[in-house]
Amino acid sequence: MNTLTQRRIAAVFLAAALLVAGVVLVFNRTTSAPTAAAPPANGGAVSSSTTSVPAPTTSTAPPPTTTTVPAVPEIDRPLNLVRTITGQISPKSVDATGTGLVFAQNMMYRHTMTVYDNAGALVKTIPDGVDLAAFGFPGHPGLSRGAPVEGAVSPDHRYFYVTNYSMYGAAFGPEGSDNCRGPGGLSPSFVYRVALKTLAITGVTQVGMVPKYIAVTPDNRYVLVTNWCSYDLSVIDRATFKEVRRIPLGTDPRGIAVDRSSSVAYIAVMGSRDVARLDLHSFALSWFRDVGLSPRHVVIDPTGRYLYVTLNGDSRVVKLDTTTGTVIARVATGTQPRSMAISTDGTALYVVNYESNTVTKLRTSDMSIVQTVGVGSHPIGITFEPKTHRVWVACYSGEILVFDA
User: What predicted TM-score, i.e. pTM, was given to this entire model?
Assistant: First the structure.
């Protein structure tokens, strides 16, 4: 083997040795490298620095506290006129339904009920003409017309009931009148049932002569109607919409208020000085005597403890304790106080004064006068609209005034 061949063989062995050494070196470095740190349990990023940077901490904020701001009592909210409604109306009464609608009963010769939304926009005019035979009352062929006077909503807010002061059409007697001088000589009248969903008359039932006020018991069992010229009260079964009882009361019965339990109805008998107390279970009648001259309207407070009565003859409003029948407060609000409305919280009582052309706001706790505002001629009806906290006042002058309250 010559010298050149030996050098070549040596070079090959040297290259192989270097290759093996390099492989071993790489292997050792790989196996001895430090293991990468596991990601933090909270999901924080791994830092490339030798100094560990903690992941940002997170904390769940407590739910925000909600503080209920108590509503301002109605007694502390002054009356402020916001709208005057006019048109082809002669409103005798106004009634908020609690559904956002307000009814006005336009007696006598308008022959309509007008329905408004709670902002005061006209929703519908409902004519009072009906075919009585279609509702099961033959003997009055053709169209009969009424004279809407007062209304009341059912507690389930499905129906609105309306009394008709008089009826006009075939086979009806003389026109109804306040000067009827007792039963006889006039035709019985009718109560209408209006569906609030469709604002259509869906029922009719017969009551006494010249029906005035109407109320629905909170348990939705009875509709009660005072018959001015029959001197009595009609008790209507709401489910069948038929009269089931007549309760004699005396001269000129008018306003009705029913307690929350539907146990007792209080009726103002305007041709007297007394308020009747009717047990709605036994229909036994008792009396709160000598309340004042010509009690016209009655309103009960939310607790049922106190009854408020307008005395048309004395031009006073009285507060009466229903547990004793005792008058505990008496106040002069204006000449001939007529209808009233009470706020939903029971703190404020609103009274229309017919001959003074005013509305008076009373504090129910002590019967003090808080505010008196002037209105149109001969205010006669009033209602409290609970959704907007507004008072609506019906005036015979042909307008309805709407107040923030």
Answer: 0.82
